[in-house]
Amino acid sequence: MAQLAENSVPIAEGLFEWLNDGAHLIGSKCLECSEVAFPQSSFCPRCCRQTTERVHLSQQGRLYSFTVQRFRPPPPFKGSEPFQPYGVGVIELPEGLRVTSVLEEGDPDRLRVGMLMELLVIPFFADNEGREVVGYKFKPVTEGKEPGPLS
Amino acid sequence: MREVYVLGVGLHPFGRFGDKDVIEIGREAVVNALNDAGLQWPQVEAAYCGTVFAGPMGGNKVLARVGLTGIPIMNVENACASGGSALRAAAQAIAGGFCDVALAFGMEKMPRGFIAGNPDDWFAVMGLAVNPQYFALKARWHMANFGTTEAQLVQVSVKNHRNGAKNPFAMYQKEMSFDEIANSPMVNDPLRLLMLCAPNEGAAAIILATKEIAKQHTTKLIKLASVVLDSPLYGTVEVPHISVSARVEAPTVTTTASRQAYEEAGIGPEDLDVVELQDTDSASEIIYSEELGLCGRGEGSRLLEEGATEIDGRIPINTSGGLLSKGEPLGASALAQVAEIVFQLREEAGARQVKDARVGLTHVYGAYGNCAVSVLQR
């Protein structure tokens, strides 16, 4: 089971973890209405009850919309210098939610609405103590690879 | 509930004003509104101030330079809907019979550049939820689903800068060509720099009164027929958003707020003669024209193409130049929209005048989905 590499820290606690098949985002599912939320939440944002359980979200989804971040965002953004434009997208997951994410692909000509995307948990930048800070991205599923089932 | 009328409007131009302090910027708008209303300050019975960047007690600081009359002063921070929220509170005070004359005002001196996130927000550290990323995602979605084109996004900005060139209170006050906008730097695809509004400085003030008092001071009676403030329902996409439900499709906050505003005013979108809406970016104008019911879903770009949203069109949008030409001082923007509609309904809009405008609407939308909509009638 893959885990965080040595000298690495997650960008925030409780966003993702590794199972046998790789990293998953962690969400919450309402025991009353089955609505799934991300990040995990102690209450259900749909029916407002305090009845949720932790669930792992699918690793693949469809690109719902996208843009490219062309300028360096103001603080607290901590990307490395010099600034490299990056993609930002909304990925619709089979659990019935759309997650906003940084994209591994930053060329808008190689992105299209509806394409299959998969989760990537990778270092974003180094913190003041030299540790790699790990966050999540999505990337287009590469050609030739069998797409996972989407319910 | 009593009817509420607009007795006076006052503006401080929108733009950048060097070392001039935000309190003075606010004071000028308040004094201009008093002069427009033909009132002396001691006749005002309550004041509501909307501001995000003027700091704690901003309203009190401004009004200390107008006069200490002992009235209640309420400070409101509600992002882009701050001014609209102040207006609603002032209108409610009059409608409910708590006072007969109330002031709503707002002022800003905003930092340069795009509005930044909170240091504790891990998503902002990662590079998400930066203005105007979210607007770009909505724009791309609209293009992919309804065929809105980049040329149409340019056209919105051309139109609003053309209108703003005729508005002495606007920041840019100059026309921009199609090519100038289409060749400006890409910021968040498909949105380019000249398709985005700029945070800036400015102030606006509105004096509201009962019908009885309004009639004593003016023959140009403008009724504030409704003013609604809504926060969003679950299942709609707001700024910022980390995720949103794909299972629940709720009406957007612009839709719910405008429906309520129409209902309270006893009109429908087809009755509107002029509209000021939140053109944070070119695509937002197209999308909100749909959500306000000015046309059907997915038809906003056609409304633009037909010329319907021009000053001489069927439903003119952003005759003031909108936020694209004026810039957006958060606390003042909604109230400046109201001022523009009042100018239109009084036939004081000069080169921007919409012929025989009788009913107008204002709309602001901001962080966490706060949305304020008002309907004005003459």
CATH fold assignment of the largest domain in chain B:
Peroxisomal Thiolase, Chain A, domain 1
H/E element order of chain B: EHEHEHEHHHHEEEHEEHEHHHHEE
| Separation, N- and C-terminal Cα atoms of chain B | 19 Å
Total domain modules of chain B: 2
Q: How would you write the strand order of the largest sheet of chain A?
A: 6-7-8-10-9
Runs of chain B in which pLDDT lies below 50 for 5 or more consecutive residues are none
Characterize the largest beta sheet of chain A: strand count, sense, and whether it forms a barrel: 5 strands, mixed, barrel
**What is the class of the largest domain in chain B in the CATH system?**
Alpha Beta
Describe this structure in words.
The complex is a heterodimer of chains A (151) and B (378). Chain A is mainly β. Chain A has one domain (8-140). Chain A contains no helices and 10 strands. Chain A is globular, with a radius of gyration of 16 Å. Chain A starts with 7 loop residues before the first strand and ends in an 11-residue tail after the last strand. The model of chain A has no long low-confidence stretch (mean pLDDT 91). With 378 residues, chain B is α/β, with parallel strands linked by helices. Chain B has 2 domains: 5-112 and 201-217, Thiolase/Chalcone synthase (Peroxisomal Thiolase, Chain A, domain 1, 3-Layer(aba) Sandwich); 128-197 and 225-377, Thiolase/Chalcone synthase (Peroxisomal Thiolase, Chain A, domain 1, 3-Layer(aba) Sandwich). Helices cover 35% and strands 19% of the residues of chain B. Chain B has helices spanning 22-37, 58-63, 82-95, 122-126, 133-146, 150-164, 178-182, 211-217, 253-265, 282-291, 300-305, 322-326, 330-346; strands at 5-15, 46-50, 73-76, 101-109, 186-188, 191-192, 201-209, 222-230, 243-245, 274-276, 359-365, 371-377. In chain B, strand 11 (359-365) and strand 12 (371-377) form a beta hairpin. Chain B is globular, with a radius of gyration of 19 Å. Chain B starts with a strand and ends with a strand. Classes of the chains: A mainly beta (151), B alpha/beta (378). Chains A and B meet through strand 6, strand 7 and strand 8 of A and helix 4, helix 5, strand 5 and strand 9 of B. Strand 8 of chain A pairs antiparallel with strand 9 (243-245) of chain B, so a sheet runs across the interface.
